[in-house]
Amino acid sequence: MNDDDLIDLLYLIPSITRLELFAVEIGQSFFSHFEATTFTPLHSDNNSHQFLPNLQTFIFDAERTFSWSAVATMAPTRSLESNMIRRPLAKVSISTYPLNLEPGPEPIIDREYLEKILASTRDGVTFAIWEARETNLNVIQQSLEFHQMDQDGRSIEE
Q: What does the pLDDT look like over 121-138, one tens digit per residue?
């Protein structure tokens, strides 16, 4: 199943509030579509033409074949328009494993994408991002330490 097939399938079930995907390869286009459909018109009566309008929880566990910037697109922002409502996403949990089993660099989310994720957590969305290594690595915490930032996104002075 490719991204387009998954998107088409999910359009058929707009009532879904919890989506769990395991061992499914998701690419950049899925995350881009997710971001593009974050907001819907306030007075829209037809949920069937909306993409996951009731989604509250997204859980994803698979091989990482996407960039961390794609994950940041799931972090909802505030609409500048008062006639739009945001998908009620409250929890994002992503567990990945490296493409190969060879030891490699630890995963780090670029600062700009990390800041977007942190802004969403301040707005009430819970993000948990893990990568399976010898132990489960908290990718957000690892990225905060790498960029010398605190949980609020402020720089930490040494």
A: 888 889 999 988 767 889
